[in-house]
């Protein structure tokens, strides 16, 4: 009996300590997200508005890919407009900017998975197109210097600094905790730990997984399988608003790669 009571007391103490730590992480989080919107340092995320509004939050982008992807290297975030292509000119109009998506990167090309090419956008990387651009830029013919794009004997990129020029990953990953629905997500967190924190706050776990984007749930047992996870059991679709956002966690090679924030207009 004595042992049982001691065990219960220790368990309660550990639970209280964990809850206190999570409250601190949430209160200190610069990004605070929910189904109905989000803030950065207390200011609303300006989805649907011109890039200049994002610059008021993050400063000027350090680089961009065409007028499609805007990258803040020092912060570890990007804005990617999925409604435009490299051939489109920049437009500040709502009908274009409503397709802006925010990515908060917890892993980049300097992370263990990044060096081995195990991240989502590395898998989708067109090496032949990158080689063509490199040859064109440096006026190279034939196969000269193309070994720079190779993988070495350790399974890592031969020249990671070169590869960085062609991918959207920020130079630095995001180093702080963020809050989604009042539950903390911190760098290096596993899917199991992420959902444990959500359960402790009586939140739906992130379990809907649609890796081939066919609209069907490929949920298994949430054991850090690669793919995108989100809460598809919406208790509240923000009835007082005409818009909502979806917060998605991407795990790659058992590593939290990024949080993607998608914006939706209910009138579409």
From TrEMBL:
Top-rank taxon, per record: Bacteria
Pfam families with a match to the protein in the record: DUF7738
DUF7738 domain residues: 31-193
Stored InterPro entries: DUF7738 (IPR056640)
Protein name (database record): DUF7738 domain-containing protein
Provenance organism: Kaistella carnis
Lineage of origin: Bacteria, Pseudomonadati, Bacteroidota, Flavobacteriia, Flavobacteriales
